[in-house]
Amino acid sequence: MILQNLRKLIFTFSFVFLFLSCEKEEPIPDKSIGEWQIYSLTDESGDLIVWNELKETLVDLISEYSCMDFTATITEQIVSTKYVFVDVNSRGCLSPSISVYTWSKDPETGIYQYIQGTNIINYAISFSNGDNRMTWKDQTNGASTVWDRVVDTNLETTE
Fold this sequence. Notes:
This protein is of the alpha+beta class and about 160 residues long.
């Protein structure tokens, strides 16, 4: 009787151990996932444009240019950027220009590949400021885009 109970106990522990060891590990979410707003960008020549300074200068000239916006939203499968710039022929902004890409990250090089149809952009992405600042460095032309994570201030004040 004792031997039979011991076998049942060993079988039960073996089953539980096997079941727990077969659980699939959840992958760690990529640091880029979230809502981002532009901080600065450089062009191929390396000229730095700080977005808020550009926007403030234009809004000082024409207040309706306050509609300017440049954001990125990154999920586990897609990256979408929304860009709203001024209409130089009027006192307002153009319709938003939205681009959507699928993305992947090369596990060996760490290079992010953004794909839109036949358009492929490879970025070296780095993070700073507690992972709340992200820098995209285009591997083709060297242009950089710096993003700041959009932080929900309502969550911060209630926690």
